Amino acid sequence: MNVEEREILAFCAVAIVGGGTAGLSLATELRHLGVGDVVVIERETEAGGVPRHCGHYPFGLREYGRLMKGPDYARRNVAEAQEAGVRVLTGTAVTGLHPGGVLDLSGNAGSARLSALRVVLCTGVREASRAQRFLGGDRPPGVVATGTLQDMVYLKGLRPFDRPVILGSELVSLSAIMTCRHLGITPLAMIEEEERLIARPLFRPFPALMGVRLHTGVRDLRIHGRDRVEAVSFFDRYGGAVSLETDGVIVSGRFRPEAALISDSHLERDPGTGGPVVDQFGRCSDPSYFAAGNLLRAAETSGWCWREGVDTARRIVADIARYGVQPATNAPLPIQFSHPALRFVVPQGIAPGGSQGAMVQMQLGLERPFSGRLVARSAGKVLWSGRLSGAPVRRVLAPLAPILHARLSAPVDLALE
Amino acid sequence: MSQKHFDVLVIGGGVVGCAMARHFTLAGASVALLEKAPDVLDGASKGNSAILHTGFDAPPDSLELACIQRGHALYLRDHAGLQLPILRTGALVLAWNAEQMAKLPALIAKGQANGVSDIRMLSRAQILAREPHLSETVVGGFEVPGEVVIDPWTTAHVYLLQAMANGATLLRSAEVLSGDFDGAHWRLRTSADEITGKQVINCAGLYGDIVDTALLGESTFFIRPRKGQFLVFDKAASRLSSSILLPVPTDKTKGIVICPTIFGNLLVGPTAEDQDSRTDASTDRETLESLRMTGKRMLPGLASFEVTAAYAGLRPACAAPGYQVRRVPDMNYVSVGAIRSTGLSAALGLAEQVAEMLGRGDHVPMIDPQMPEVERLSDYHGRDWQEPGYGEIVCHCERVTRREIDRVLAGPMPPRSLQGLKRRTRVCMGRCQGFYCRGTVAQICGDRLDMPQEDAA
Ligand SMILES: Cc1cc2nc3c(=O)[nH]c(=O)nc-3n(C[C@H](O)[C@H](O)[C@H](O)COP(=O)(O)OP(=O)(O)OC[C@H]3O[C@@H](n4cnc5c(N)ncnc54)[C@H](O)[C@@H]3O)c2cc1C
Ligand SMILES: Cc1cc2nc3c(=O)[nH]c(=O)nc-3n(C[C@H](O)[C@H](O)[C@H](O)COP(=O)(O)OP(=O)(O)OC[C@H]3O[C@@H](n4cnc5c(N)ncnc54)[C@H](O)[C@@H]3O)c2cc1C
Fold first, then answer.
1. Which of B304, B311, B418 is the closest to A141 by Cβ?
2. Nearest by Cα to A89 from A149, A7, A9
3. Residue A184 belongs to domain with CATH number
4. Please, what is the average pLDDT of chain B?
5. In the listed set A311, A329, A347, which residue is the last one of a domain according to the structure?
6. pTM of this prediction?
7. Do B440 and A131 touch (CB under 8 A)?
8. Mean pLDDT of chain A
């Protein structure tokens, strides 16, 4: 659709799509830095994002020096933003992105166009659905993600089942145990297709401590039941057929960015992260757009996303100061790789403009456990090389500065050796 | 229920039964539709490809061909008045090797003999110009412009809602168990009430043979369900093909199709798996993986798109070829059996056909029938969220509003299950599959989804 065809109804300096952890910290920091008109657009009836339904600790330690539960933390983030003079539009969904920072909005009152000097996408992450995990079997109701369960339990006061099983063994799967305990129930089992618990080794004893039986290395997992979940069946690591009578399935983890807006827009999307392609400043392929928070990659902690919001705010202020209304057309040199153990790297490219205020680390996503050396080269020259060890889903970082300081004339090649 | 005696008793609330109820109601008869499940569209009509077929590849001179073509024509005639959408995709039948190429002329000739006059052979270059994302390995093919995409659920719902708006009665959770005919009237015993009527039309789909046996003591056919699994790709993948992509059929099946949906997704499927179970619509990973591979072979771009959903449908197939439509003359009974893989297209034609078989009767057709209120779910036409005053958007992936959900829950045929609500509004059917909205939906519905037995008009 052509932007000129419809009237632009409103203007603002910076529009932030998504009022979760990153969006709110970013907006607050922009105001602290003196940006006049900062608008956060949030599609839910309340801002705060995912922490609103994480009814557990630990949130806020780094940000506010206090140990908080998710809902309190979310409220605090909203309050800080409002105090700083951020306009938070709730119950308003962004339904389209147009070149140059023009957004389609929809709310109960109608549709509108908003034009901003810069737009920041902070739409967060969600867990993979059973379909995305290719889980077989019947399709009864009663199969929910951890986030959905938390919403049902902590925000809606619902009790969807009494003896569920948990699929997945990430950190969030352990939260699922805690959410069940909040209901006074103990999940029957935690089931993982990988060979071992995905959450860090530190947490390996956790399911057993909570009285939850752990099955790892399972095959051919199926859900059974017509009007309700009645059972799950699988083959255990020894090839034995197991069937568990259960009334619900929590499909947990395998986070992926909520990138619907990007898929449907002109912005370039990275199939590796599932989020937008960004440069070292968090700028998207259209430099009127930035991105921050877990939309960039799945998935970091709230503390990380909060910090990322603050850092991105500073980059945006610098960007506006430098380029004004018309942002630079950035032609980043890609950071590329072909090693099968690598799944993604953020940022996906390095734009001219150097290192001032840029990300200091690159974030890597692994396809499978790896231990060895990471080597970054450009035009055959080694820019950096160092030890790297990590596993899928875990945080894996490498310094970005050596790459930013090199005067690049060719793409950066990452190799695992 | 105010009235327990009807002119016509329709057994089964699949798309065929819904079309039947509409036809006889508009023809002036009093109609009751009996559905064993808590909600309609619980059988074969729950999961199909949603193509409105032209019949170009149907068996020549068959009842199936006649009903498909009549159904197609009636849909084109009535859809605007009923506010039912059409996505005019056309279909491309594609050959991927020399052997398949060799089969094309016969297929085209068959289509032309079937009266589909606008089939056009296309060169490889023409095909790739029209669908630039197709794999370069395509060899040739032809175009069938009349194959289009419709809404598989709203279509059937609207047929039934129009019947109800004009006096028909819907009985859900009413399984027909047995019955007898006294020479003038049928008395049917159901799991709910007893009900009487002059004519019985068995549209029980996957259970057609069982219902025939229960009511007539015998069945002339035996249902052998044929499962079809599908993958639904992300809406963004819909830009990869604007046409229905059909393979060259084999003796057994039409093969794996790539098909846009009216909701903006891209479907890959169905498989054809014969089975005994009439209820097992499960999917399995191996098959889903192979569907993804097949899809990628035809449209390599699919590799970078996510899957949104997977589902399976059961075709009411039987060993004998063709539809098993039979009138039992001295018993005021018609059995509409084995409407296997084209029932969505043929439904309106079948209804007309059955009416002809039963004769005109002394009913007076309605002159100006009521139109039902219709939910607009097509991604290619205006949606509810685009008009102000919708409350909130509850399901963000499919942009389903609170106003739509409330309307459906308060409407003449409220859903009885989450599945039913999904089919009526599309909540929880998008990219996140309910991650964001399932809790809100559960809260809105509260105890409203499990409701009493009966909705009289
Ligand atoms: C189930 C689950 C459990 C988690 N548990 C923890 C935990 O215990 N501890 C922890 O540290 N981290 C946890 N996380 C990680 C979580 O993503 C981060 O804590 C943090 O919330 C990320 O912040 P964000 O701003 O990137 O995204 P979010 O907080 O998710 O915020 C995104 C916001 O964008 C809005 N939005 C999306 N699309 C649109 C649109 N089109 N228009 C308008 N608004 C839109 C959403 O409604 C949402 O409010 C969890 C994540 C999930 C999914
Ligand atoms: C994979 C697949 C793909 C398809 N693709 C297409 C397509 O693209 N185009 C097309 O036109 N067609 C397609 N079809 C075919 C189409 O879906 C079917 O032909 C159609 O749904 C059959 O409808 P029906 O009403 O005969 O049966 P059903 O939908 O099975 O309806 C029968 C109903 O009767 C009820 N019932 C059963 N027993 C009793 C009883 N004793 N008492 C009361 N009620 C009873 C059942 O609960 C059910 O609701 C496809 C089918 C499948 C499975």
1. B418
2. A9
3. 3.50.50.60
4. 95
5. A329
6. 0.96
7. no
8. 95
Span A111-121, pLDDT tens digits: 999 999 999 99
**Ligand nearest the Cα atom of residue B350:** 2
Chain A residues with CB inside 8 Å of B440's CB? 151, 156
Q: Does A5 lie in the same domain as A123?
A: yes
Q: Are residues A341 and A320 in the same domain?
A: no
- Which ligand has its closest atom nearest to the C-alpha of A172? 1
Q: What's the confidence (pLDDT) of residue A8? A: 58
Q: Min CA distance, B335 vs chain A (Å)?
A: 28
Task: Identify whether the C-beta of residue B92 lies closer than 8 Å to the C-beta of residue B143.
Answer: yes
Q: In the structure, what pLDDT confidence band is assigned to residue A4 with cuts at 50, 70 and 90?
A: very low
- Do A62 and A143 fall within a single domain? no
Query: Same structural domain for residues A407 and A318?
Result: no
CA of B411 to the centre of ligand 2 (A): 24
Instruction: Tell me: ipTM over 0.90.
Output: yes
Pocket mutation for ligand 1, best pick of A42, A123, A127, A363 (most atoms within 8 Å of C-beta): A123
Residues A322 and A364 in one domain: no
Rounded Cα distance between A296 and A256, Å, is: 10
* Token code pair at residue B25: 């109601």
Tell me which DSSP letter residue A50 carries: G
Question: Which chain B residues touch A260 with a CB distance below 8 Å?
Answer: 396-397, 431
Total residue length of chain B: 457
CA distance B220 to A170: 55
Q: Best interface-test mutation with B: which of A106, A135, A148, A234 has the largest number of B CBs within 10 A?
A: A148
Q: Whose CA is nearest to atom 48 of ligand 2?
A: B43
Q: Which domains does chain B have, with CATH numbers?
A: 5-48+152-223+320-358 (3.50.50.60), 91-145+224-315 (3.30.9.10), 384-455 (no CATH)
Range of the domain at A414: 331-417
What are the percentages of helix, strand and coil residues in chain A, rounded to 5?
25, 30, 45
